[in-house]
Amino acid sequence: MIDMRILVTGGAGFIGSAVSRRLINETQNELLVFDKLTYAGNLASLQPVVQSERFSFIQGDICDRKAVEKAVTDFAPDVVMHLAAESHVDRSIDGPAAFIGTNLVGVFTMLDVALSYWRKLSPERAKNFKFMHISTDEVFGSLGDEGFFHENTPYAPTSPYSASKAGSDHLVRAWGHTYGLPVIVTNCSNNYGPYHFPEKLIPLMIINAIEGKPLPVYGKGENIRDWLYVEDHAVALLLVAREGTVGESYNVGSNNEWRNIDVVGAICDLMNEFMPRSGGYRDLINYVMDRPGHDLRYAIDSSKIQRELGWRPAERFETGLRKTVKWYLDNKVWWQAVRSGSYRGERLGVIAD
Q1: Can 86 be counted among the known catalytic residues?
Q2: CA–CA gap between residue 292 and residue 90 (Å, rounded)
Q3: Which among 16, 24, 217, 299 is most buried, taking Cβ atoms within 10 Å?
């Protein structure tokens, strides 16, 4: 028996595919993935679940109102889980227009279609409908040496990416407040794990190490992030979809703060354990010019979702990173296909003089 019908935008991306795989493998929900398949969308990440009768896929753009309307109307979801986004800070520095289009115009389109759909539902289905918007801790700006981001932390985005996500968060809450659309916002810390597109720090370091290439570390590597294993995040999102309170926000983090240079060092040590190299891997570390406006520290207080919904991360960073390094070593076909296509590890986000 089908439990819920869940539409996941961006379901072929990193976090979206983790959610999609878990939806099919661990629940009785019916899933529709709606994804544009940009450079970061990869159908191979959905291969483990595509044969399920409860899985369906539509290639479409969230800025295309007709395509969104048809998908929503035909599938008739109980939950819209909106993950589709442009998400890489460096790319937002090079080309902010795509971020404004997807993260603001696209979110508006999703909200407008969802509102029209929700208003036509029966009272019982309307009562149980949820529009979930998955966002980032980067909307809160940069922390000093102490403190944490809370759900009520004032927004202070500093990059084109985080500004576009902050705007989308505000739109979602406005549609909830003004029109009564049943919305929930989640803000997560930095995700890592299998199927991660290799422009991000952890997969880039692992793949470069496998290939014996330099490991570029921005600035002095002092920037600190709270690292969240993607499977733990997927569990949290499905819990919010089922039990989260409409109108609320939930921060999702795992209290795993690491400096970038220490992350890279840990990857080097794991690589030397799994694929020994004469002299080790730390000699590949290469300090490069820092990212413009690079936020110093992010750290999330996730006590609300732990207290109210009972979620806890299963992985410590050490255990999650070990699983991640091993996955990239065992799944070269997946990332080599990416390397040969849209992204070859080049530096992004450098402002020209």
Answers
A1: no
A2: 9
A3: 16
138, 169, 226, 295: the active-site residue: 138
Among 35, 137, 226, 257, the active-site one is 137
Which is the catalytic residue, given 35, 86, 117, 161? Answer: 161
Tokens of 152: 């009520």
227/239 Cα distance (integer angstroms): 20
Residue 211 appears among annotated catalytic residues: no
Amino acid identity of residue 146, one-letter, is E
CB-CB neighbours of 111 under 10 Å: 23
237 with 19: CB under 8 angstroms? yes
What is the CATH class of 5-196+227-255+297-316?
A: alpha beta
What average pLDDT does range 38-61 have in this prediction?
94
CA–CA distances in Å: residue 47 to residues 36, 199, 219, 341: 17, 22, 38, 19
Angle at 186 between CA 181 and CA 189, to 5 degrees: 165
Write down the pLDDT at residue 200. Answer: 86
Among this protein's residues, is 137 annotated catalytic?
yes
Could you tell me the pLDDT band of residue 337, with boundaries at 50, 70 and 90?
confident
123-165: per-residue pLDDT in tens?
999 999 999 999 999 999 999 888 999 999 999 999 999 999 9
Helix pair angle (317-330, 332-339), 10° resolution:
80
